[in-house]
Amino acid sequence: MSSRIKLTSDEMRMIALFESITGATVRDCIIDPPAERVIFVVKTGDIGQAIGRDGHNVRTIRGMVGKNVEIIEYSDQPSTFLRNALSPARIKEVRVTEKSDGRRIAVIAVEPRDKGFAIGKNGKTAERTRFLAKRYFQIDNVIIT
After folding, report:
1. What is the mean pLDDT of the chain?
2. Is pTM beyond 0.90 here?
3. Cα separations (Å) of 75 from 35, 102, 116?
């Protein structure tokens, strides 16, 4: 986790709960009250363990915290991380470019029939992806095409 990311005591409690139930290592936790969800970013390779057989761990934690639970597998590579954040949408291409004014932008080409998955209901998945891209890779905008 980046040294500039600060966790609240509630987020630290959520991480402890999640790790004790799943055995997976959590890199980050974001409690998102407006969307009524908790987002966990897990260590590379821990996604299966975090989800559990047939989603058992996700259902258990959702029942305990009373919010939707979203899990994303971390990657040091922005393109891989963005693919993981938009899963299960099938991604054709991810391009991260730097504009002349210094802003970084990611353009993600998605299979046309998966665009709904990538955007999410009311844009929640796209918004989450933009937030995480900024938090981890200083990417100012994510455009889904």
Report:
1. 95
2. yes
3. 24, 23, 24
